[in-house]
Write a structure and sequence with these properties.
The protein is α/β, with parallel strands linked by helices. The protein is 40% helix and 15% strand. Strands 2-1-12-9-8-7-4-3 form an 8-stranded parallel sheet. A 4-stranded antiparallel sheet has the order 5-6-11-10. Bound molecules: D-mannose. D-mannose binds at residues 65-66, 103-105, 111-112, 157-158, 207, 245, 272, 317-318, 332.
């Protein structure tokens, strides 16, 4: 297992490489060129610049999160071929600096969805929260406005104001895309890119849908074991793999995540570990990584990774905002709770390692 930390880049993250270096066990930064829109080719010189910055702190840059997939590819429009060509060029450029894993998602319109970015947890901290009633009783436009207002001047991947400003039109473009069509369009995309990935030594790692059920009528294809099985068969190659996110899948209590880790084993290239507390009405709040604080069996999750001899990359996913840091950090991506999460994960991992000796 290789521990990593998601870093939004120099000048774009209140957390610096110097801060990250002080967290025990972190070997690499998970990065992206966040200012580039989906569909643009990532220029080689920009990629090399990040490599140089990370090298100074002896961090690897093996994992990129995300190279976003343009909506036209998800919808299956004629424009997709050129956009896939661009995606391939980006894959090739990333391979030149040794990137090994690309995390991406195939969620229509939104990336992760929450209704409140700063919900009090009850201990003085606050965290990302999803309230079902808000999504059912509100238009997507007004939810977007509320979330973007909460984020203030902090950008959030998947929540690009430009792309979402006319969200109704975007929904309209997706109107004939159901689960089956989305799966087909995903297959089309994978059939073009996976051979290139094989050639250059990169694995694709799709991120699960978050939340793992349809919202605003949007289809969902990466939300439970059955659908993940179907997805892996679309192109049955190791390079067509997963980012297994315990927080996204864990919002549905019927997902048995340790069982998924054992089943999908070598197709998991990247592990996102976080905890969520779910409520009977389907609402959920993000909590600390400690198993007792939520519904995700985090200790069992780490044990399952240990048991399968996981050699891939891990990162703590979102954290609560602690000690007032929300005024400064990107929602869900503060310093403190994610650092605490790393220590929790490593505590379990190191114990398991010792027990083996
Ligand atoms: C949430 C993240 C996701 C992930 C994308 C990958 O914070 O785990 O936004 O980066 O879905 O494309």
């Amino acid at each position: 297992m290789k521990m990593t930390w998601r870093w939004y880049g120099e000048g774009n993250d209140s957390i610096t490489l110097n801060h990250i270096k002080q967290i025990p066990g972190v070997e690499g930064v998970v990065w992206a060129l966040h200012d580039l829109a989906a569909g643009e080719v990532w220029p080689l010189n920009r990629i090399q610049e990040v490599k140089k910055q990370a090298d100074q702190f002896k961090f690897n840059i093996d994992v990129v999160e995300s190279v976003n997939v343009h909506d036209d590819i998800k919808i299956g429009l004629d424009t997709r071929d050129q956009l896939i060509d661009n995606y391939i060029e980006t894959i090739r450029n990333l391979a030149t600096v040794g990137v090994k894993v690309i995390c991406y998602n195939f969620m229509p319109v939104f990336d992760w969805t929450r209704t409140d970015l700063y919900k009090p947890v009850g201990d003085g901290s606050n965290a990302l929260f999803f309230e079902n009633a808000v999504v059912s009783n509100q238009s997507a436009q007004s939810m977007i406005e509320k979330v973007l207002e909460g984020a203030g001047d902090k950008t959030m991947p998947g929540w690009e104001p430009e792309r979402l400003k006319d969200v109704e039109k975007l929904f309209e473009k997706y109107k004939d895309v159901d689960d089956e069509k989305l799966m087909e369009n995903c297959k089309y995309f994978l059939e073009r890119i996976i051979p290139v990935c094989k050639e250059v030594g990169i694995s694709m790692a799709i991120h699960p849908d978050d939340p793992p059920w349809p919202i605003f009528g949007i289809p969902r294809i990466i939300n439970n074991a059955e659908n993940i099985r179907k997805f892996l068969k679309l192109v049955d190659e190791k390079e067509n793999g997963l980012t297994l996110c315990t927080g996204s899948l864990g919002a549905n209590p019927s997902n048995d995540i340790p069982a998924m880790i054992r089943e999908f084993g070598d197709r998991i290239h990247f592990a996102h570990i976080r905890n969520v507390k779910t409520f009977d009405n389907g609402d959920f709040i993000e909590t600390s990584h400690r198993e007792q604080d939520g519904n995700v069996p985090v200790v069992e999750v780490v044990k399952a990774y240990h048991e399968i001899g996981f050699k891939g990359y891990i990162r703590p996913d979102h954290g609560r905002h602690l000690w007032g840091e929300e005024s400064n950090c990107r929602p869900g991506y503060g310093l403190y709770d994610r650092a605490l999460g790393i220590m929790y994960i490593l505590g379990v991992w190191d114990t398991l390692e010792k027990e083996m000796k």
